Amino acid sequence: MANLRKLGRRTDHRTAMLRNLVQSLFENGKIETTVTRAKEARREAEKMITLGKKGDLSARREALKYIYKKDVVYTLFEEIAPVYADRQGGYTRILKLGPRRGDGTEMCILELVDYTKKESSEEKETVKADK
What are the tens digits of pLDDT across the range 50-85? Predict the structure, then answer.
């Protein structure tokens, strides 16, 4: 089995944290986290995008085993995966930010390459209402 970073957590806590990081990445297009967490989340995100590129029913069910929100899986298969149809891996990028102020841990931004998040009509209405 491939080496896995333990991240100072029990197995169930670690897998839940990585699932949440990947889910947030697909919802927002980018997330800010520590470098070690980003490297682990990147592994899982790349696997999920590869499943999204397959696009069949079994791939969708496999993705639902890892990502619990159906709307995030829909976004993955319908919006994110088609962007990477001609790309053979390297769907994410890690941009280092520098040390965190409290404890000096190296922080970074994990983002999807060549993907711009589409704003829904609800988000546009709230932006207009705020102005």
Answer: 999 999 999 999 999 999 999 999 999 999 999 999
Q: In whole angstroms, what separates CA 94 from the centre of its chain?
A: 12
Cβ atoms < 10 Å from Cβ of 57: 8
Q: Determine the distance from the C-alpha atom of residue 32 to the mean position of all C-alpha atoms in its chain, rounded to a whole number.
A: 11
Provide Rg for the chain, Cα atoms.
16
Q: Could you tell me the pTM of the whole model?
A: 0.84
Q: Select 11-112's CATH number: 1.10.443.10, 3.60.21.10, 3.90.1030.10, 1.20.1440.230.
A: 3.90.1030.10
Q: Write the DSSP assignment of 26-84 as a string of letters.
A: HHHSEEEEEHHHHHHHHHHHHHHHHHHHH-SHHHHHHHHHH---HHHHHHIIIIIHHHT
Indicate if the alpha-carbon torsion angle 53, 45, 76, 34 is positive or negative.
negative
Every domain of the chain and the residues it spans: 11-112
CA distance 17 to 33: 11
